Amino acid sequence: MIKQFLFWCLCTNFLILSVKAQDTLVSKKYVDVKIMLDKPVGEMYPMWAWFGYDEPNYTYMKDGKKLLSELANLSPTPVYVRTHSLLVSGDGVAALKWGSTNAYTEDEKGNAIYNWSIIDSIFDTYIKRGIKPLAQIGFMPKAMSTKPEPYRHSWKPSDPYSEIFTGWAYPPKDYNKWAELVYQWVKHSVERYGKKEVESWYWEVWNEPNYYWKGTMDEFFKLYDYSADAVKRALPTAKIGGLNIAGTRSENSQKWTNAFIQHCISGTNYATGKKGAPLDAFLFHAKGNPTLVDGVVRMDMSPQLKDISTGFKIALSYPETKNLPIIIGESDPEGCAACGMATNPQNAYRNGTMYSSYTAASFARKYLLADKYGINFLGAVSWSFEFENQPWFYGFRDLATNGVDKPILNVFRMFGKMSGKRVTVQSDRMTPLQSIVENSVRGEQSEIGALASVDKKTAGIMLWNYHDLDQLGIAEPVRVSISGIKTKKVTLTHYTIDSQHSNSYEVWKKMGSPQNPTSEQISILEKAGQLETVGNPQKLDVTLGNLVVDIVLPRQAVSLLKLDW
After folding, report:
1. 240: pLDDT confidence band, cut at 50, 70 and 90?
2. Active-site residue 447, yes or no?
3. Residue 532 is inside which H or E element, if any?
4. N or C: which end of the chain has fewer CB within 10 A?
5. What is the pLDDT of residue 27?
6. Backbone angles phi, psi at 315, to 5 degrees
7. 448 near 429, Cβ under 8 Å?
């Protein structure tokens, strides 16, 4: 009884400190969350440790290198990175939704000239940090394009999105030249990085062929066949996949996807004349759809989760694909990373904690959907990186701005602290899987959910307070009852992302939203962008394998309770 009383006092003090830090009204009723560490449900595999972006030349720029180093440090296992435009012609100068490497040009007689210097700068940056490429084979070099003019676009966020589709999006004039380019690239990669290293990569052809490809479906299958054959000729043990379709749940996308799989299984290979084509991984995309409702951003997780469900079900429908590694090549709250909130006000969620809580809630459902369908889920690519030399907190879908980490990156830092087995969780305010797939979170109450893991000497409990409407609400006390702890003492560390913690955006606004912050201000912002704790770690007694922890969770907040012993 004495121990229980002391622990109640500790929790009460902890709760009071949390309330004071939030400086907001708090509901009086506890939300009950139960964590059963002795009831595993699956592996806590790092499917979240995948990232991507449009502009490849940001990779080796100052802030790009800094962010990639941070991403590499998120996970004890390698992070994978995907980027567009690795074969696009140009001067290597980045712009929004544009990048180039000039890997392929031709002389006056039409002979191939290969130049790997920019691609090497990109891949060297990855390999130096232990990052693995999800290497995208595309887009079309100018000298090969069936419609080379106009080639480079000058798109900006206020322009129609269709203006980006210039000469790089067209089929090749000569598929044999295309195949030789791919062969030489893979061969060069093996020579530069070694066979074992390149065997650990994934290669994939093009991006969203139902959208980014200005040829026919059959012409895309031909491109895939020639690409895959070239990759395998250069490195027979290389892994290649497709097709990274957009809008997976739509009827047209399902038509594309089924036709592609059937072609890989039994179609006549355009490159070899034989039956089928190599398919070592199955990739598709999943996107949500935020809107404005009376001037307030309203997120919608349902389309994204329906895309994922559809992709999983298609993979399961063929014996040849049901056990393949599945990669969601882009998995995000919406589609255009480079469309800031000035031109697309529905994207105003990106700087603050709405993006954080959405990510926590949606990634937890990706695990649950993978469990439901029993598929070999490898990774979900968050198509968000950084935009070099752009306005501070412009509202791009990015992880950092001008070298300062945004709140969203701290969710991935939390994921990086979770390992081992995922375990059973129960919350009286967590939306059932089928309901959130169909309707997202639209009721009067926000969702308070959890994802938990346990390893040999540690456990991690991620909690979030999420609602589709981007509004603040009453902070809620949450009672976390943890059972199945196989030790008598633990050290509890409480990490959180809210208006007062792990939030460079709020600090920047309090500075007056400077667009030219001083070096001292930048230093403060960099510190504010790191993952913070509420108070200091606490040593706690465990009674008969049980522990109760009380916290306060404001709306849009994400917390991680880390237990170590």
Report:
1. very high
2. no
3. strand 532-533
4. N
5. 65
6. -60, -40
7. yes
